[in-house]
Amino acid sequence: MNAENKKKPVILGIFIIIATAIIVAGVFSVGSQRKFFEKKFILHFLVTDAEGLQPGHNVWLYGVKVGAIQKVTILDNNMILVSMNIEKKIQAHIFRNAKVKISTDGFIGNKIAVISGGSFSKGVVANGDTLRTEKAVALSELLTILQNNNKNVLEITENFKSISQKMNDGKGTLGGLINDKSLLNDVQKTILHFNKTAIQTELAAKNISAFTYRLNHDKGFINKIISDTSIYTSLAASAEGLKTSINSFGMFMTELQHVGEKLNQKENAIGMLMNDSTVANDIHEIILNLRSSSKKLDEDLEALQHNFLFRNFFRKKNK
Q: DSSP states of 261-309 as a string?
């Protein structure tokens, strides 16, 4: 065997060794990424729809990848049992009352299982435990909701378009306000009226302020009444005197009322004269008799004056 023939097996062996080393390095590299060599334990959860979840898809806990889907099994009761391979070191962070939901890795990524929630007081999970399931909103449902929202937005847009067209055509109250110049003028006049009213209100406020200042000023009458005790004392005395006068006048009116009541009674002389018709008639007859007697007395004196016995007496009397 020559030298060249001896070299070929050596080169082939070196190539095989290098290839084997690359394969082993690749296996270890992938294994470290996929965590093939770490200890695992199994957890399960039940769903009615796997939503495309397959073995090999990731399992996340609080945003951290902690395992992968091991198997998806359809049970006799039409339920689906999903088994998960979870890193053993994560077991202390998953509690018995934790929940699992099927979600998506990104908006259009692969399906994943997401573990969340749970409390320390319930204890940590054991190998083979089944976790409760939390219903997640599927992408198809989100797309349906978005589609319905798009329809609603389209309808709202059409309505706004119709309203704007009516406003441009001068229909309705807003259209009239926008297109009718007379209404615009009325609105402008109303605004001017409000402006004038505001100015007058401001002037009235200034007048009230000035009046208040005068009331509070030292030379003001009201201020003097409030601050000058002598004026206050005089006013109090005047008020007391007025009160006394009013009381006296009241007493006078009461007495006057009593006098009036007595005048209406027949038990006294004045009341009898004012209220007894018999007494009034007698007084009237007395006056008539006195008048008649007086007339007769005048006639007798006249006759006596012309009598010859007394004629000289009356003449001397006249002289």
A: HHHT-SSSHHHHHHH-HHHHHHHHHHHHHHHHHHHHHHHHHHHHHTSTT
